[in-house]
Amino acid sequence: QYAAPGWISILRAIHADTGIAATKTRIVMLTSSINPADKERASKYTSVIDFYHKPLNEDALTEISEQEADL
């Protein structure tokens, strides 16, 4: 069976918190993983607002900045 990446533990901890961390945290994932299941798993967490693959380029940074401005 495929082992969950370490970042899944971090997301679980954030969502287990019922305070400010759970409601105000926004995460943009940056990964070197090519496994589509990782993106699917991350999308189940409401704090994950986007998912990018390394290397991060200038266009992606612009998209992230624009998303932050819209929130």
Q: Main sheet? A: 2 strands, parallel
* Helix-residue proportion: 40-55%
Q: Regions with pLDDT < 50 over 5+ consecutive residues?
A: none
Structural class comes to: alpha+beta
Cα gyration radius (Å):
13 Å
Spell out the helices and strands N to C: HHEHEH
Give a quick set of tags describing it.
alpha+beta, 71 residues
Written description of the protein model:
This protein has 71 residues and is an alpha+beta fold. 52% of the residues lie in helices and 15% in strands. It has four helices and two strands. The protein has helices at residues 6-16, 20-24, 36-43, 58-70, and strands spanning 27-31, 48-53. A two-stranded parallel sheet has the order 1-2. Strand 1, helix 3 and strand 2 (48-53) form a beta-alpha-beta unit.
Quick recap:
By secondary structure, this protein is an alpha+beta fold.
Describe the secondary structure blueprint for this structure.
Blueprint: H1 6-16, H2 20-24, E1 27-31, H3 36-43, E2 48-53, H4 58-70
Parallel strand pairs: 1-2
